[in-house]
Design brief:
Largest sheet: 8 strands, parallel
Strand order of the largest sheet: 3-4-5-6-7-8-9-10
Radius of gyration: 18 Å
Structural class: alpha/beta
Shape: globular
Bound molecules: NADP nicotinamide-adenine-dinucleotide phosphate
Helix content: 25-40%
Number of helices: 10
Distance between the termini: 42 Å
Number of strands: 10
Order of helices and strands: EEEHEHEHEHEHEHEHHEHH
Length: about 280
Amino acid sequence: MSDVPSIDLNDGNRIPQLGFGVFQIDPADTAETVERALAVGYRHIDTAEMYGNEAGVGEGVRASGLGRDEVFITSKLNNGHHEPDDARRAMDGTLTELGTDHVDLFLIHWPLPTRYDGDFVSTWRVMEEFKADGRARSIGVSNFQVDHLERLAAETETVPAVNQIEVHPYLLNQEVSDYCHGAGIAVEAWSPIAQGRVLDDETIGEIAEKVGRTPAQVVLRWHVQRGNVVFPKSETPERIEENFAIFDFALDDAEMARISELDRGEDGRTGPHPDTFAMIPG
Ligand SMILES: NC(=O)c1ccc[n+]([C@@H]2O[C@H](COP(=O)([O-])OP(=O)(O)OC[C@H]3O[C@@H](n4cnc5c(N)ncnc54)[C@H](OP(=O)(O)O)[C@@H]3O)[C@@H](O)[C@H]2O)c1
């Protein structure tokens, strides 16, 4: 029923290129919102322990009537759990909250290079355990910079399947993206529409008018054509449908280039910088 293409991961698994993000969805509303997204056709949900709504995601998936293997679920290791035993407990907690025996993808949420003596390598080795015991079908990282990825490559056996990083027209994050593509790491673009900030952009508006689509559809389509995995968040039923309808049109090379030229580099970043972010949720 869905036209969503899948991307091959470096471990032989596949991930639907379009998913549904649940950051900032109230835990009490999450099950209903996830069920709605699944009814529209989404088959990939991106959550995290940090979002506090893993239980709602599991409930929404069960309520959808879909089989567990029909929905790709990602969750993430929270910042307070990088010590190996804490990470093992956190994985147990995530699976309990979701009500499942495995996640399709588990990520280290932030590298936290200024915490844990800068040691995200020991944490990655525990992620390798989760992959080996089948509780995570694939493992990856989030917000890792090039030097963090180079360190994992030098000191561990497993190349992350994905790196989930901030990417949108105002922050191409090109250096990290290029490294990932060269190393066989799929790029997942978080805040793909910059939480709405790029939708009033004049250039995007012009292209949207020309192709007869909304600005959000144009930006999401731009991501897909660049090869990014995306999971826009919305609690608005019309937008959940709108964001899913991006596989029946295409942008030409000139339109793609015009959007990419909107890159503002570091000035375009909306979230924390991975080199300095050190927040541990209370
Ligand atoms: N790994 C990380 O560190 C990290 C960080 C941030 C996000 N993420 C992941 O990435 C996902 C997406 O990022 P995000 O939630 O930050 O931002 P986003 O998807 O770029 O934008 C979401 C915002 O845009 C609005 N919106 C959605 N579709 C729209 C449309 N078609 N037209 C107009 N407005 C629209 C939503 O409003 P309504 O809900 O009111 O419709 C919401 O305010 C998250 O949910 C999470 O799964 C990961």
